[in-house]
Each structure stands twice: as structure tokens, then as C-alpha cells.
Amino acid sequence: MEDQLRKVLSEIEARAVSSQRELTSVKQALVQKQRIAKTIQLTLAEIDSLPKDTPLYQGVGKMFMLADETTLQSRLKEEKKSTEDEAKALEKKHEYLLKTYENARQHIQAAMQRQAT
């Protein structure tokens, strides 16, 4: 009986550690996506503040190409929407992993209390 309890506890602990590791990774990815979205928003605001006849350039690999303002803005808006969607998905994954981690921790505590009794 005690061997089974140890086995279950080790499995739950492994799940908790895995969830915590993934949680850290997801947090970092979420911060990165939020930073990218903010950068795009600032770029769009800067483009809007420029005079209409200002030439705009778009980075392509190691070079820059002249870009049409509407094309550049639409590409940036699409990229921003995509980044925000990815951030929302990461937030959902973060919530799921947090619940998984909390559940595993509660199971460990409950098993320890049962073993102490």
C-alpha cells in the first residue's frame, strides 16, 4: 500500500514540476508577444503621425524596400492581430497550466495528510 502511495505521489509531483516548467515558458512567451504587439502599435502610431508624402521602408531580410503606406499599415495591423490572438491563446494555456499545477499541489498535500493520519 505504501509503495503505491509513493508511486502516485511521485507521478503527481512529476506532473506538478512539468506544469511549473511549462508555466514559466508560457509566461515568457506571453511577455514576448505583448512586447511585439506594443511595438507594432507604436510603429502604427508613428506612421500615422508622419506627413503623407514621407517615404516608408519595410525591412526584408538584411535590406529595406520602399513600401506603400496603406500596404505597410495593413501588414502591421494583420501582424498585430495575429500576435494578439497568439497572446490570448497563451493566456488560456497559462490559466490551464496554473490550474493543473494547483490541483497537483493539492493532491500532494491531501496524500501527505492521509499518510500522516
Defining key terms:
mainly alpha; two-stranded antiparallel ribbon
How do the helices and strands line up, and which of them pair or pack?
Blueprint: H1 2-49, E1 56-60, E2 63-67, H2 69-116
Antiparallel strand pairs: 1-2
Helix pairs in contact: 1-2
Question: What would you note in describing this structure?
Answer:
The chain has a two-stranded antiparallel ribbon. The longest helix is centred in the first third of the chain and has 48 residues, at 2-49. It has helices at residues 2-49, 69-116; strands at 56-60, 63-67. Helix 1 runs antiparallel to helix 2. Helices cover 82% and strands 9% of the residues. With 117 residues, it is mainly alpha-helical. The protein has one domain. The protein starts with a helix and ends with a helix. Strand 1 and strand 2 (63-67) form a beta hairpin. The mean pLDDT is 91. Belongs to the prefoldin subunit beta family. It comes from Protomyces lactucae-debilis. One of its GO terms (molecular function) is protein folding chaperone. Keywords: Chaperone, Coiled coil. One of its GO terms (cellular component) is prefoldin complex.
